[in-house]
From TrEMBL:
Positions of the N-acetyltransferase domain: 154-293
Protein name: GNAT superfamily N-acetyltransferase
Pfam families for this protein: Acetyltransf_1 (PF00583)
Length: 293
């Protein structure tokens, strides 16, 4: 069988990437449809500064690689995903990548054993002693033990449809300044699946200002939700508002039929806040990312 490479170039390619991610997702996977929608949905195709290649057979995607910073002197940073049932496609993708990005670093979740095996076959290795920045995967079971979100004096609610997108995008920019998220980019992302406003939770102060949020993404096929991203305005922090937004989003997942939710956050000592926040909402860490070079 011939596996051919195609670069992500528009909405059709994005649909194929989302289908591939949904079809191959497992409870120990790094990438969820929400990651793809957040990264590429604002552009309806490739994100600026990235190149995404997909390997297909008869129109069915079997592997994908996204390269960030290919022009950097120290090499590109790659994300890599492949169908567990087709190690040949993983090998084909990595053979191409070694030529396209000779000094690459590839990050995967340590539980993605089939990807680690493919990287090892390609001659890449990980440093077990690497204590640099890494991401820690957390998950929570969506059952009756979820506490209700009750921040005193604040209203926790979903976004009021697409009409509220300018306020919602402005909140993101205020929290994460400088940010490239424009009203138009947010509107583009919200115009297509898997975005749904009932999973886009905001926190409103007594004066009606939006001050915190949690953006949720729900994969109906796998009954799994993802949180990405989350934030609170600096002057409203340390009041439990992010936790309240997270809990409200988890309840929305559960009401939609979800049975699990995941979040990937920094786990190293350089950014310790997420390690303290997510366990308070019921999340348990289960794996970290590893970098192969």
């Amino acid at each position: 069988m011939v596996v051919e490479r195609h670069d992500l170039d528009g909405p059709d390619g994005l649909d194929a990437l989302l289908e591939f991610t949904r079809r191959t997702w497992t409870a120990v996977s790094r990438w969820h449809v929400g990651d793809i929608a957040w990264t590429f949905g604002q552009f309806n195709g490739p994100a600026p500064g990235t190149r995404t290649s997909m390997w297909r057979e008869h129109g069915r995607t079997l592997a994908a690689i996204t390269a960030y910073g290919a022009e950097r002197q120290d090499g590109a940073v790659l994300t890599f995903h492949a169908d567990q049932a087709r190690p040949d496609a993983a090998d084909t993708a990595l053979t191409w990548a070694k030529t396209a990005y000779p000094h690459m670093a590839v990050g995967i979740l340590e539980t993605e054993h089939h990807l680690g095996a493919a990287l090892a076959r390609a001659g890449l290795r990980t440093d077990p002693g690497d204590d640099g920045p890494f991401f820690l995967a957390h998950r929570v079971t969506l059952d009756g033990t979820l506490p209700p979100p009750k921040p005193a004096g604040y209203l926790v609610r979903p976004v009021h449809g697409r009409d509220e997108i300018p306020r919602r995008a402005a909140l993101h920019r205020a929290i994460w300044a400088p940010s490239s998220v424009t009203d138009e980019r947010y509107r583009t992302m919200a115009a297509r699946p898997p975005y749904r406003p009932e999973f886009d939770t905001v926190v409103e102060d007594p004066g009606g200002e939006l001050v915190a949020y949690c953006l949720g993404w729900y994969d109906e096929a796998n009954r799994a939700g993802l949180l990405e991203p989350i934030g609170t305005l600096a002057r409203h922090r340390r009041r439990g508002l992010a936790r309240a937004a997270i809990l409200a989003t988890l309840h929305a997942f559960r009401e939609a039929g979800g049975d699990t939710a995941i979040v990937h956050a920094r786990g190293d000592d350089g950014y310790p806040i997420p390690r303290a926040v997510y366990p308070t909402a019921g999340f348990t860490p289960f794996a970290r990312t590893r970098v192969y070079r």
